[in-house]
Specification:
The chain contains 9 helices and 8 strands. With 270 residues, the chain is of the alpha/beta class. It has one domain: TIM Barrel (Alpha-Beta Barrel). An 8-stranded parallel beta sheet has the order 1-2-3-4-5-6-7-8. Strand 5, helix 5 and strand 6 form a beta-alpha-beta unit. Helix 3 runs parallel beside helix 4, helix 4 crosses helix 5 and helix 7 packs across helix 8. The radius of gyration is 17 Å and the shape is globular. 44% of the residues are buried. Belongs to the metallo-dependent hydrolases superfamily.
Length: 270
């Protein structure tokens, strides 16, 4: 089955991973800007990173027939530095009109601090000003419910009426209903030790249905599986779901959401 991974950090994966993904049916990947594992020292580091995301990664993916799209932001883990964050925000518009850029992300909260919330809102303001899609990171388990509620409250006040243009990622059993009931898209992330397993994601898909639901690997430099989406496909097949129902989540929904971006250009394969 062809599929799209709507959240994966390929800058931290090997070229062999692109080949493996292509062999397993992946036809496209969406890569949000994220924390590199260490705090960058200045805005030029982010400029080089954005050049890598918009220039080199699409080329590397293309060697194996995989389309690569990206998102731009300064990650919540680095948002405590307000001065650096605002320098990066001022630089982002230089890249927004490049082919393959889907919007602003992954923005959000990490420890739910005031500075993180300030920079989150300034990202949202930038996205609204330029009419961009938004991809959101919700905090890890101990802070997830509070952080998700904070994010939804901030979105209601600063991006009201744009619910269909926002993807809230890393939902789990205790947050997915909040996101879907508010009208946003929801992403389920499959990790080997944290976030969701393929079985838990299938449970949520069965409970809430496929509308505005996606599944991703968020594969990065930590413990993660770039082939997690095929694991979900296999679990859904094991439970007897139709190919059309599975395809809705792993292929049709990403295309519908990304298709709202004026720069999105993709010719589905036969």
């Amino acid at each position: 089955m062809q599929y799209i991974d709507p959240h994966i950090h390929m800058v931290s994966r090997t070229t062999d991973d692109y080949e493996t993904l292509a062999k397993m049916g992946c036809v496209g990947v969406s890569e949000p800007a994220f924390w590199a594992g260490f705090d960058r020292s200045g805005v030029e580091g982010f400029r080089d990173y954005f050049r890598q995301l918009t220039q080199f990664e699409p080329t590397r993916a293309g060697w194996y027939g995989v389309r690569h799209w990206t998102w731009l932001c300064i990650n919540a883990k680095e948002a405590e530095n307000l001065s650096l964050s605002r320098d990066v925000l001022a630089m982002i518009p230089e890249f927004l009109d490049l082919p393959g850029v889907l919007g602003i992300g992954e923005i959000g909260l990490n420890k739910n601090t005031p500075n993180e919330a300030t920079i989150f809102l300034e990202h949202v303001e930038l996205a609204v000003k330029h009419d961009e899609l938004i991809l959101i990171h919700t905090p890890h388990l101990q802070d997830k419910l509070q952080g998700t509620r904070m994010i939804l409250d901030m979105l209601r006040s600063d991006a009201g009426g744009r619910e269909g243009r926002v993807l809230v990622d890393h939902v789990e059993e205790h947050t997915i209903a909040h996101v879907l009931e508010a009208g946003y898209w929801a992403g389920m992330t499959l990790y080997p030790t944290t976030k969701c397993s393929p079985q838990r994601a299938a449970d949520m898909a069965e409970r809430y249905g496929p509308e505005r639901l996606m599944v991703n690997s968020a594969g990065d430099w930590g413990p993660s599986r770039p082939t997690a989406v095929p694991d979900f496909i296999l679990e859904m097949r094991r439970r007897g779901h139709s190919e059309a129902a599975i395809k809705r989540i792993v292929y049709d929904n990403p295309l519908e959401f990304f298709g709202q971006c004026r720069r999105f250009d993709f010719e589905p394969r036969a």
